[in-house]
Amino acid sequence: MSLPTVSADDTDGDGVDDAQDDFPNDPCASKDTDGDGMPDSVMTNCGNAGVVAYTSFEDPFTISSVKYTDTGNQSVDRYLWNNVNEPHVEHTQTTGSEMGFTLYYESNGGVGLTDGDYFGTINYTGTVGNFTDGNNGYQMSDVDGITTLALDDGSYKKPTGNQQIISSYDL
User: How does residue 96 score in pLDDT terms, banded at 50, 70 and 90?
Assistant: First the structure.
């Protein structure tokens, strides 16, 4: 009779040995068969316990089929701000649940967003079919410059070990 090999390396305590666990520091996930960095499934009873911060663009003002028009100087690098009755390109966290975000524009000599472009929070799904979470997303099209969408920092302190950060965005 041969004895089974017992492994004591299960850092996250999910019952899957670290050698076979694609997410050894995440007790809610263990497999990533397609290699996209996202778990194939989330284990039962994990819920949102591992979620540190998120946005599905549900909090900001959202409108469909309306263009955002930058009213500033197209040749100046700067943060862009929201306009009345246009999709929001910036959001300050107000509810304590969804992350805020900012949009920074860098000129490359083009007209930027001063000519009106489909940009910012939307609920129009004609191009994508649906969003992975919620009814809204963030659209970026025809930039004519360089833009950086930055989400607020999410922080989490874990007493020991490392943490797995998984991000998913509908942009």
Answer: low
